[in-house]
Amino acid sequence: MRKILYIAMPVLFLAACTKDISRFNKETKKPSAVPGAALFSNALKGLSDGLANASVNVNVFRFTVKHWAMAVYQDEAQYDFNTRGIPQAWWTRMYRDVLNDLKESARVISNDANLDAAVKQNQLAIIDIMQVYTFNILVNTFGNVPYKEALDPNNLFPVYDDAKTIYTDLLKRLAEDIGKLNTASASFAASEDVLYAGNVAQWIRFASYLQMKMGMMMADVDNAVAKAAVEAADAKAISAASQNALFKYLPTSPNTNPLYTDIVIGGRADYVAAEDLMNPLINLNDPRKSLYFGTNNAGNYAGGVVGRVNTYSDFSKPSAKISEPNAALVLGDYAETEFLRAEAKERGYTVAGTAEEHYNNAIKASILYWGGTEAEANAYLAQPAVAYATAAGGWKQKIGFQKWIALYNRPFDGWTELRRLDYPQLTPAVNAKSGFPNRFPYPGNEQQLNGTNYTAAAAIMGSDKVEFKLFWDKY
Question: Is 242 contained in some domain?
Answer without folding.
Answer: yes
